């Protein structure tokens, strides 16, 4: 009887392991195939490592023409193509899309086909050419999954920032290097007491940008270097976090300044960040 029970248990465990393997393959195979496709369609120029010293500002019209020529194939493939984001070493190297709402690309791919992984996209209210604040959203596909914006979770650890302190964002208007300056968490539940609608800070003047930066600093797990000035262009990356329901992990970055390098800056740990009420202690 014991042998039969053990045999049954072994069969159940084996079945579960097999199911897990199959389930993992279901997610892994499309991701692997797509990753190879992204490598193939990404213009070669964007893979070159950035220089530490920003070049002289080019003519905006000429730069836009060059960017549109570089990404002509992707624009033809999907007219809602808005740019490309790469975070070296973080396994984020993907197109950015933008449409008239913040829902479509949650569940559609580059070709507008159904895909529950979605595709990173810019907030529909963002002015990708002249706006002061660009906000990008992408899915967190879960633990042990590196697809989409999943690896942004790792920036909760300041050591991860130190290893990956910058990113490159190409739009149809320019190519810029951004330095990460803050990492924080927010909730979308009013019952959590503190709801910070970071995505309402889009059309900014200097005063509104200063207010935004102050609110981020209060919530940040850490800030870096000289943080950000209220006259600088800002970039926000947002994804879900599984520390609690209806929460987001948010990364704030600003352009590389003249004379700066892409190396990590000093980390300033916030000993008492303003967190959602349900945020797990010590997380």
Describe this structure in words.
With 283 residues, this protein is of the alpha+beta class. It has helices at residues 2-41, 60-70, 72-77, 158-163, 206-219; strands at residues 81-87, 92-97, 121-122, 133-137, 166-171, 175-187, 220-224, 234-241, 247-255, 267-269. Strands 1, 2, 3, 4, 5, 6, 7, 8, 9 and 10 form a 10-stranded mixed sheet that branches. The N and C termini lie far apart (46 Å). Residues 1-25 have low confidence and may be disordered.
Determine the fraction of residues in helical runs and give it as a percent range. Answer: 25-40%
Distance linking N and C termini: 46 Å
Architecture per CATH nomenclature, i.e. the level-2 architecture of the largest domain: Beta Barrel
SS-based structural class?
alpha+beta
* Oligomeric state, counting identical vs distinct chains: single chain
CATH topology of the largest domain: Sortase, Chain: A
CATH superfamily of the largest domain: Sortase
| Count of runs of 4 or more consecutive helical residues | 5
Number of beta strands: 10
Would you identify the regions where 5 or more consecutive residues have pLDDT less than 50?
A: 1-25
Average pLDDT, rounded to a whole number, is 85
Strand content: 15-25%
Biggest sheet, in brief? 10 strands, mixed
Rounded to an integer, what's the Rg over CA atoms? 21 Å
Q: In one word, what is the shape? A: globular
* Pattern of helices and strands: HHHEEEEHEEHEEEE
Tell me the number of structural domains. 2
The level 1 CATH classification of the largest domain is Mainly Beta
